[in-house]
């Protein structure tokens, strides 16, 4: 995927960019070994329930790596942080608050911390492995155990990169890294509110079964029976 910032996102391109990112997320999640330990219903609940936070932590990281002046959304498109000099598309105005939160509370702190690829990899997996409503007790137990395992791995990853770093400094770094997750959670809620509105009223042609399922119905237990009984009812790009 091309994450380099080349032009402002437009309303027409938003749907394509969003579907591309979700497709990348689904492929990424399928490789997490702990996901395979859950039963099928818990897998679906977790993948759907953690989709938005996982996608936006990816976008934030790619924005850091590419030094994007805002938020990259793949395919060469990006959402600008400074919107004072040029008039961006209406979608940028609509999502302006989300862009500002991501920039000030996630992207800039990640740059200041100089987060390594290994640290980011752990951070995204930990962000994904969060218990969500309606998970079975067995699923919650397995998810919490996996999450704690990856949190413990932070110490080893930091020690490997900086063998002489004292333990108090390591623990402080782990704490600062973990504080990035609540930011993504806040952004995910903001995104849900905005995209649900766009899906319901077909703003920027965002009305589709995938958009509706991920942003409006992700805590609806009936969504999963629909997945099983009618595989063609939820096409990825519909």
Could you list some keywords that capture this structure?
globular; NHR-like_dom_sf; three-stranded mixed beta sheet; disordered C terminus; 238 residues; transcription regulation; Retinoid X Receptor; 3 strands; mainly alpha; Nucl_hrmn_rcpt_lig-bd; NR LBD domain-containing protein; receptor
H and E string: EHHHEEHHHHHHHH
Structural class given helices, strands, pairing? Answer: mainly alpha
What is the topology, as strand order, of the major beta sheet? 1-3-2
Strand percent estimate? under 5%
CATH superfamily, called what?
Retinoid X Receptor
Number of structural units classed as domains: 1
* Mean pLDDT over the residues: 84
Query: What is the percent of helical residues?
Result: 55-70%
Number of helices: 11
Distance between the termini: 21 Å
CATH hierarchy, class? Mainly Alpha
Oligomeric assembly: single chain
Rg, nearest Å: 18 Å
Structure characterization notes:
This protein is mainly alpha-helical and 238 residues long. The protein has a single domain, classed as Retinoid X Receptor. Helix content is 64%, strand content 4%. The protein has a three-stranded mixed sheet with strand order 1-3-2. The two termini are 21 Å apart. Keywords: Receptor, Transcription, Transcription regulation. Residues 1-217 form the NR LBD domain. InterPro entries: C.elegans_NHRs, NHR-like_dom_sf, Nucl_hrmn_rcpt_lig-bd.
